[in-house]
Amino acid sequence: MAQVVATRAIIGMEVHVELAARSKVFCAAPSPAAWPEPDATDGEEAGPNTMVDHLTMGLPGSLPTLNGRAVRDAVAVGLALGCQINRRTRWDRKSYFYPDMPKNYQISQHQEPLCVGGRVEVPTLRADGLCDPSAPPTGRWVRVRRAHLEEDAGKLLHEAPGGSAIGCSILDLNRAGTALLEIVTEPDLTSAQDAVALGTWLRDVCRGLGVTRGVLQRGHMRFEPNINTELTLSDGRTVRTPVVEVKNLNSLRAVRGAIEHELREQPRRLAADGLVMRPGAKTTRGWDERSAATVLQREKEEAADYRYFPDPDLPPAELSAAWVEGVRASVGELPLEWSRRAVRQLGLSGVEAAQLGPEPGLRGLFEAAVAHATGLGCPAERAARAVAVATLQSLARRANAQTAARHEKLGSGAAPVGAWELGLSGAQVGDVAAMREAGELSAQNADALLGLLCQGEHRGADARRLAQERGLLSHRDQDAMAQWVTRAIQEHPAAAADVRAGKEAALGRLVGAVMKLSGGTADGAQARGALLAALR
Amino acid sequence: MIAASAQSIARRVAARQDSAGAVVAAAIERARAVQSRTNAFTEILPEHALARAHALDAALDAGAAPGPLCGVPVVIKDNICTTAGHTTCASRILAGYRSPFDATAVARLAAAGAVVIAKANMDEFGMGSSTERSAYGPASHPTASGRVPGGSSGGSAIAVASGVVPIALGSDTGGSIRQPAAFCGVVGLKPTYGRVSRLGLVAYASSLDQIGPIAGSVADAALALRVIAGHDPADATSLPDAAADMSQPLGRAPASLRVGVVGPEATEGLHPGVRAALDRAAGALRDAGAHLVPVQMPHAEHAIAAYYLIATAEASSNLARFDGVRFGRRAALGPLDGIDELYTRSRSEGFGPEVTRRVLLGTFALSSGYADQYYGRALRARRLIKGDYDAAFAHGCHALLTPVTPGPAFMIGEKTSDPLSMYLQDAFTVGVNLAGLPALSLPMGTTPDRGQELPVGVQLVGPPMGEPALLAIAALVENAGTSHA
Question: What is the pTM of this model?
Answer without folding.
Answer: 0.90
